[in-house]
Design a protein that fits this description.
CATH architecture of one domain: Sandwich
Distance between the termini: 34 Å
Shape: globular
Helix content: under 10%
CATH topology of one domain: Jelly Rolls
Oligomer: single chain
Number of strands: 10
Largest sheet: 5 strands, antiparallel
Radius of gyration: 23 Å
Order of helices and strands: HHHEEEEEEEEEE
Structural class: mainly beta
CATH class of one domain: Mainly Beta
CATH superfamily of one domain: Jelly Rolls
Number of helices: 3
Strand order of the largest sheet: 1-2-9-4-7
Length: 226
């Protein structure tokens, strides 16, 4: 039966992918002799923590930062990328590539995650970047725009931004918006997306809090799926 299915798949121009064999463990993940002796029923290696590293970090341990390319009315007056009390937003880097020099050496070369704060009534202007990204809202509420779509969000919402998607948001509540964000590399990325930060799409239009909107002007057109 399997042979017949494989022949049919080839005839239709489909590739055939064999299921992994359970009886042939991956030598890179299979338990070694030490693991098997201490943890007889372990399914994977148990190498132990690497000296000088940790698996824990709290948001309060990471510096509050703001994008140095943003104007002072939004990012505040902090020096060298630091956010101060006048900033309408700030972010932390909780895990990032080594080049970012993450706090407590929480490094991952293809992943960049942290938290973001947006003050009540403030708007994060429409911007974009080459990296794929998601945000997860865990406190506050607001209006979120991605390309031509805008939606009211509340805690529990996750927003996914494809590469170069125009996105921004507005805090419509009386409390700060607090979010978790993550960037990562996709297999098909043509450049090292970790080296390219966010840039506003309409900087000439966003000259202060009152004239700032969370979407690109005009709204991006919808592309046809390939």
């Amino acid at each position: 039966m399997k042979k017949i299915m494989a022949v049919a798949a080839v005839a239709m121009g489909l590739s055939v992918i064999s299921a992994p064999s359970i009886s042939a463990p991956d030598p890179f993940t299979a338990p070694d002799a030490k693991t098997m002796k201490v943890y007889p029923k372990a399914q994977y290696k148990v190498p132990g923590r690497l000296e000088g590293t940790t698996g824990f970090i709290h948001e309060d341990e990471a510096p509050k930062k703001s994008n140095k390319s943003y104007p002072a009315w939004f990012r505040g007056n902090g020096k060298n990328g630091a956010a101060d009390e006048s900033a309408l937003y700030w972010y932390t880097e909780l895990i990032a590539p080594k080049a970012y020099k993450p706090t407590k050496n929480m490094s991952a070369e293809n992943l960049y995650c942290g938290t973001l704060f947006l003050a009540p009534g403030a708007t994060y202007p429409a911007h974009n970047h080459p990296a794929s990204e998601f945000y997860f809202l865990y406190e506050g509420k607001g209006k979120w725009c991605i390309d031509d779509e805008c939606q009211m969000i509340r805690p529990g919402h996750l927003m996914y931004h494809r590469p170069f998607a125009a996105h921004g948001w507005q805090n419509t509540g009386k409390d700060p918006m607090k979010l978790l964000y993550c960037w990562w590399k996709e297999e098909g990325d043509k450049v090292n997306v970790m080296n390219y930060g966010a840039r506003w799409i309409n900087p000439e239009k966003f000259t202060g809090p009152k004239d700032t909107v969370p979407h690109a002007v005009p709204f991006p057109e919808v592309r046809k799926a390939k």
